[in-house]
Amino acid sequence: MFTFLRLIRIMFVSFRYGLDELVISGIQHPWTERLLVVMRLGRKLHAPRGERLRLALETLGPIFVKFGQVLSTRRDLIPADIADELARLQDRVPPFPSEVAIASIRKELGRHPDELFASFEREPVASASIAQVHFAVLKDGRDVAVKVLRPNMAPVIDKDLRLLRAAATLIEKISADGRRLKPREVVAEFDKYLHDELDLLREAANCSQLRRNFAPGGPRGDLLIVPEVMWDYCSSSIFTMERMRGIPVNHAARLVEAGVDLKKLARDGVEICFTQMFADGFFHADMHPGNIYVSDDPRTLGRYIALDFGIVGSLSEFDKNYLAQNFLAFFRRDYRQVARLHIESGWVPPGTREEELEGAIRACCEPYFDRPLAEISLGQVLLRLFQTSRRFNVEIQPQLVLLQKTLLNVEGLGRELDPSLDLWKTAKPYLERWMNERVGWAALRNNLRRESQQWAQMLPELPRLVHHQLARPDRSADTLAELQRLRAAQQQTNRLMAVIAAVLAVGVAVALWAVSR
User: Fold this and answer.
1) d(Cα 330, Cα 324) in Å, to the nearest integer?
2) Letter string b/e over residues 299-313, b meaning 16 or more CB atoms within 10 A of that residue's CB
3) 103 phi/psi in degrees, rounded to 5
4) What pairing do the DSSP bridges indicate for beta strands 304-306 and 224-225?
5) Alpha-carbon distance 266 to 420, whole Å?
6) CA neighbor of 145 nearest in space, from 245, 247, 226, 241
């Protein structure tokens, strides 16, 4: 019943803001204009289409706002007016009352904000789909940002997820292609990450982990700045972190005015992305412009600043190796290796002909190489690969959905910073260096060093274990005798079954002869 009512509400909101008109207007058909005239009767849709879409997504709730945030970075797929309007969803979602935020802080942390902090700003500085942020100052003088979860979020998200699960089940039942895409597993992954985002203690832990990976003063400290977590002021609904100052990454004019090198910034973004994915296996998976800033402080000018750590992704060692080999094979245009990797990993049926899959992948990817990023759309490449995958029954891997989303976001950010950036040439040297570290002598030395702690415990026990094994009585003769007895019993059983089969055959033959007379 809840799912049905939610569906009715979605249909009502879509009709209220004229989203049906927006969809139909994009269909090329002689009857489209006449249909639009009929649908406009009795409705006044004076607001621009992008504004109507944004308002509809805001009305429908956080899941739809998340969808709009991702869509806003894909200016190669949607018109500029819609992209500009959807960009407002990144940090300008209507806030909830400050009194509610104060009550939540008091409930979770046990004291009023005026008692906890030297100062607390009532007006939120940013408001997103899941939470909003207030600036404050600790009593020791440090500036902080206090993130407060929106009230009653879980029931709203659960209703939308029920609707998505129902839609996924329907798709699997009515479409063989839908079953290949594993929509229910994809929704389950989405469910997991959305509920993780509702736990701000988990987000604080993600932030702390990412800060360690890009520790200030470390080898990667000049790439990414991650705020420090103030653990004494955190709970499941409150997340207090060091206040970050910078310029939103999509404000190119302000970045240039501040003296930031946009070309270097674009290259650094690619390096940060691939470092998180392949070196750490732990990556920020919500990299829309509202969550990424650039430092304008002279001491750290041009460094990325990461915010909002509610959604992160993890890759296993198998996933990292598989993906890195695929990327390198793509960059080298070794499509036979790409096809082989797909077959060996089980992503395609084992009977798939390697040369056929190789030819299909080459036809998809070859036209896009040797072009600047401005002329390459990763979305279009993925679309063509998706169309090709239908022929070969390629199974979508749900654990990589966040990775795909992150790569699309990185492409959108790179396109805004430096349209001439060659994504392939920027990423290829890094991946080659990473693979050399994984499979060369350096990799062997690192693995030996990592395993040495376990060996330190096992080696002293090795002589005793060897002596114990050698001192055991020799039972090979008993084992051989038992195997011979089992073999004799098996042969006797086989002879008995052959006799029974012969008797049954004679009986059936006699019965058939009797019936025929």
Assistant:
1) 10
2) ebebbbbbbbbbbbb
3) -65, -35
4) parallel
5) 10
6) 241
What does the DSSP 8-state code read for residue 446?
A: H
Query: Tokens at residue 304, please?
Result: 């990325």
Residues 316-327 have a mean pLDDT of 77
pLDDT at residue number 256: 92
- Mean pLDDT throughout 388-405? 66
Confirm if 106 and 223 have CB atoms less than 8 A apart.
Answer: no
Q: Residue 240 — left, alpha, or beta (φ > 0 → left; ψ -120 to 50 → alpha)? A: beta
| Mean pLDDT, residues 172-185 taken together | 68
Tokens of 492: 């006797």
Q: pTM for this structure?
A: 0.70
- Quote the CA–CA distance of 336 and 321 in Å, as a whole number: 17
C-alpha span between 11 and 8 (Å, rounded)? 5
**If you count them, how many residues does the chain have?**
517
List, in sequence order, every beta strand (DSSP E) within 253-291. Answer: 282-284
Which of 95-109, 167-181, 232-246, 479-493 shows the lowest per-residue confidence on average (mean pLDDT)? 167-181
Which residues neighbour 216 within 8 Å (Cβ) at sequence distance 6 or greater? 225
Per the annotation, the verdict on 296 as an active-site residue is no
User: d(Cα 469, Cα 463) in Å, to the nearest integer?
Assistant: 10
Name the E strands within 113-254. 119-120, 126-127, 131-137, 143-149, 224-225, 238-242, 247-248
* Residue that the structure tokens 């989203």 belong to: 19
In eight-state DSSP terms, residue 275 is: I
Distances (CA, A) of 260 to 256, 352, 353: 5, 50, 50
Catalytic residue among 91, 160, 286, 308: 286
